[in-house]
Acriflavin resistance protein (Stenotrophomonas terrae), 416 residues
Amino acid sequence: MNASAELLKELRIDRTAPAPGGPSPSRRWLWIVIGLVLALLLALGIGALLGGKPPVTVQTAPVVAMAQAGADSSSVLDASGYVVARRMATVSAKITGKVREVMIEEGMRVEEGQVMATLDPIDANAQRSLNAAQLDAARSQTVGLQAQLRQAEAEAGRLQSLVGQQLVSRSQYDQAVAARDSLRAQLTTARHNAKVAQDALAIADLGVDNNVVRAPFSGVVTAKAAQPGEIVSPLSAGGGFTRTGIGTIVDMESLEVEVEVGEAFIGRVQPQMPVEIVLNAYPDWKIPGHVIAIIPTADRGKATVKVRVALEAKDPRIVPEMGVRVSFLEKAAATGAEAPKGVRVPAAAIVERDGKQVAFVLQADDKVKQRPLEVGQVLAKDKQVLSGLSAGQTVVLSPAAELKDGDKVTLEGAKK
């Protein structure tokens, strides 16, 4: 029995003993995690050694030779403004009346004297008919008095010969002369009345003509303000149902540009100074122009001075109230003079590093090279660089403080 019990004890499984052939499962997982961490650290180290820090996203601009910067001139000042018309009018009738017909539409070209609208002329026609009748009556009265005067003059002439022969009394002759003179005075008055009636008729004709609204000058209709049946008046009647105009026309030949220049920079602007005008609607179209005049007053609130600029090119694309950008140009040097030195780069590309002015040039391998610069004069938003850069290179705009020589960059908006 004892021997059998001992054999059974030997056949029991000891669960507290370590499993043969390796470590426990918990230790195996621990080693796996440690291995993965070491592999990740090793990969990061290799990546840092091979690729360096990730590329910096930048904006760039080309370096331009001074001769190409403005062809014959360079900008000394930039300002914004608007296209305005020196000749623009809101056309209205001279009298108050009801619109009968409107003959214009927006965008339509009209010539000087062309009929734009007509008013109902019933009142003016009635007044003209009355004045015409009065003129006819005055003329008829004049004709009647002329006939009576001829008879009175003949009667006075006969009595004058008879009174000399003492065949009629002197009193009869005097009565005939008085009648003749009275008719002469009445005829003079009738002729004046006829002249007054004729003048009144002419005024009535003007009243009829005032019911026709004509264009004061040639131009393009930019607004149509009235419709048939509405009441128009040259003066506001104080209510919301009376129009004060028929339409607005603009003389496109009188277009120019008005810009506001800050008081601190107005000294750079001179009359007849050449300018370059760029419309906001057409940014690639450069229009030549020149300064017409500097308005001799300043805006106290904005500290600006208004400058009038002429457009030397006329085009249907240029319309009033368009926004523009005006570059005031410095005249080119005389023929045979020495060409300007250096290149022209945006001022934003030049930064200071270790007390020196530098720029970062983009290389073929998408890395940047720091270049020390010798900077010349300021040219509006650009600067003249006398040495350190050459035309055709590409520089980084507004380089970040952490950007260093040899760093890899990528262009903003480029596909990765």
